[in-house]
Target: Ribonuclease R
Amino acid sequence: MGRKSNNKTGKGKKKGGKVMDAAQLARKILNFLDNHFGEEFNSKQIIKKLEIRDGVTKGGVEPILHKLAAAGSVSKSPRNYFSSTKDPEFIEGIVDYVNPRFAYIVADSKFEVEEDILVKEADLKNALDGDRVRIMVYPLKGNSGRVEGKVLEVLERSKDEFVGRVEISPRFAFVVPDFRKMHHDIFVHKGDLGGAEHNQKVVVKMTEWRDGDKNPTGKVTRVLGKAGEHEVEIHSIMAEFGLPFEYPEEVVAEAEEISDQIPKSEIKNRKDFRDITTFTIDPADAKDFDDAISYQKLSNGNYEIGVHIADVTHYVRPKTKLEKEAYDRATSVYLVDRTIPMLPERLSNGLCSLRPNEDKLTFSCVFEMDESGDVLKHWIGRTIIHSDRRFAYEEAQENIDSQSGDFFEELTLLNDLAKKLRKRRFDKGAVNFETVEVKFKLDEKGTPLGLMVKERKDIHKMIEEFMLLANRTVAEFIFDRNKGADTFVYRVHDHPDLERLETFSNFAKKFGHEIKVGEGSRISMALNKLMEEIQGKPEQNVLEQLAIRSMAKAIYTIEPKGHFGLAFKHYTHFTSPIRRYPDMMVHRLLQHYLDGGKSPESETWEEKSRHSSDREKRASDAERASIKYKQVEFMSLAEDKDYQGIVTGVTEWGVFVEISETKCEGMVRVQDMDDDYYEFDEKNMRLIGSKNKKMITLGDNVAVRVVATDIDRRTIDLEFADNESNNKPRKQR
Model:
């Protein structure tokens, strides 16, 4: 609604609006009709919409409309209704539903739209977050100062199933979705509750949403159980992200039918490494060992290092049920308390897993290296191995540190070579992101008893370095065959956007860290310097996470581009086919080329790459959601005291704070900050008190206390500890 006029008239005169001349009025009418493209208005409606109050201007509306129509500037219907003649822009894109009042439409790249288009809730036509829509873009910017539009059609729903809590009244029921970007409760008829009881968690499928209805209608498809219970909440996360609960029976049956015997004819076609020292190094609780390292000293004084990867595609053949299921899942998912594997256990923990003291089929990258860590030559092909030892990371590190135990000499030499490879990589511009990972200690019921920060030691970096070497070597081998013309699946990481990097640089300054934003290797050097400076400091986790967010996202594609973060000209994923479908694609294409095959058509492989990138994002989001759930639960049980924290985000509605002790993030809501009225300074990302002039900005060290936790929404509500007037008892949901 437009702003009412504040003009005052003289004593005894009626209040009225300011008289506009004909040109002003014509412009105002044109702007109004252009921003309501597709709608018709008569003169009375236009007067009301434009809030014209003075009689002179009111009387001028009708004649001006007819003049505009005669000039072709507006269209007139036989009923004397007027509409815009401007051609709006029609685009397609994805809905980003920000809050209950509006959403942004992120246009498809082919439309070359400079900024996201704002669409008000009334114009969304029941579109939801993530939906693909067709919209009409208004010719002129709206009152928001942004380009605005209107949804014409929902082309594709991103999801029609939601997880939520059932609320049952005497006559009807609603499901209140957990998903924070779903701003509509879902109406459920009593007969469609599927046995769900009040306050239980359920999966509800939207069945209808008629135009004009405030809420969609749905049907409960799965009752998860009592809200707040560990198993129920984890299942809620799985359902929310569309993760599978079990394998189809026919997929399991197909896996069980695969023989565990290796035919002699198969061994003849492979290079035999069974007599060469080989071992695996994995987390202590791992069961799927998909990589092993072999070592032997050559007669010329050099070293032969083999990186051996489970030969999954030997067992999972194209056009099988196993293949279809692996493609659909595309990745294993690691939630806070469980793994949802890409392949059935028969394969992931059995046939394909490189278990010790068993002959195993592998696809290998074998390097001849000198003492300086230089690769003198390499060989790629299918092999058979026999692992001599299964190490947990901690065991292998202990053997290096103590210089004793199984294979300590081999482990030490491999570690020395890896350090040289690592140094060389950083010298060439690789970025050293050592992110802080939090792991929860859970009891038998899943209740968090404590948390620990995972420590990355030399042994972790050693394995990583040899896997990177193998991945890079395979990518460069295929690229160099035909100057990148051969279809292949690459792992690509684009250069960071300089504007986003500038924003991050300004944020880092709040902590006293200077980052000089340049290009290429200079960016890498500046980021690495920062990573060294913040090691062990309270702001480490915050700055590492924000630095990663300022980077481009790594994706799978057939485009032979480079990997900025690793400073590799070409890179792929070859080393984890048990848990990543792209690695299976790489194995198939690699063998096809080793057999002398011609380059296949590329479109199918690009489509599979996009699917894999999408599934990777889904897995990452689900993993974060499970961690956030445990963080909320942990803080609901934590000691009721003041905590030190760092301001990690400032918005018009609240301040995000990461608690340093627990690495858990919560929000102090502006509406609860009753010591003053705070205004949001968007440019400087800060809140300023209108009376006390107190500033709250990114990077501030603050003391907070927990006032509420909400398991459903996975949120932690905080208040500033010095705000004594707002010291409330803690609430839980």
Summary: The first helix runs from residue 22 to 34.
